Amino acid sequence: MEGPGGGRLLYAHPDAPADPLGKGGGRDSSGAPQHQVDVAIVDIVESPSTVGALRRAGVAGTTTAVVAVGGDHRVHSPEEFARRARLWGASCPSDGQELLCPPAVWPPGRIQGPHRVLVTGGARSGKSTEAELRLLGESEITYLATGPAAGGDDAWDRRVKAHQERRPWWWRTEETLEAAGVLERTSGAVLFDCVGTWLAGTMDACGMWRIRRVPAPKRRCPPASTNSWRRGGAPPPMSWR
Q: Which one of the listed residues 35, 73, 76, 163 is annotated catalytic?
């Protein structure tokens, strides 16, 4: 929607296309890309990946105010709704608040990297879901999947399929243990899922789990601890046996 003064507002559909809408220098009289809007209203609960899709398509740019709506019973608290909006660089207007298009002031700048966030927790505690949630507002994502490939274990296959189906289609997936190479050559955000499976897979590739005869220790071994695989409810790989 375009107003008399040239302000452009978009209420984004949950299935907003993520393909870039044009190449090169299509710009309006103010110098903004011709497809860019001043205000984009997004239901971030219905379709949070729409924020990333609009940025990838060039519809939402650095001067676009992304307004988050949809804070209802689908989110357990106003604080959680506001947290998600901040992750995606969106604002949460209060009830009755008047919004201008274009905005009276530029939206606050999004935090620029490089920076790292480590999400920890027990097996099957929602680490991957939280990590994916944090990146849904980004336009360029590489998903570095280091777990075993699907095939041979029904429970694991179902988990892999669930992970694949909930990713936005434009996310690029790298299924490999060569994490250093991916991190070195990749631009944009990288979701490394996960460090534990990468370490176990790398040690497995080095033959760490082969049964060998070793001399008896000359002294008692010190105690050590680790997280319990059985708490995760999935069958253990060789590295946990």
A: 163
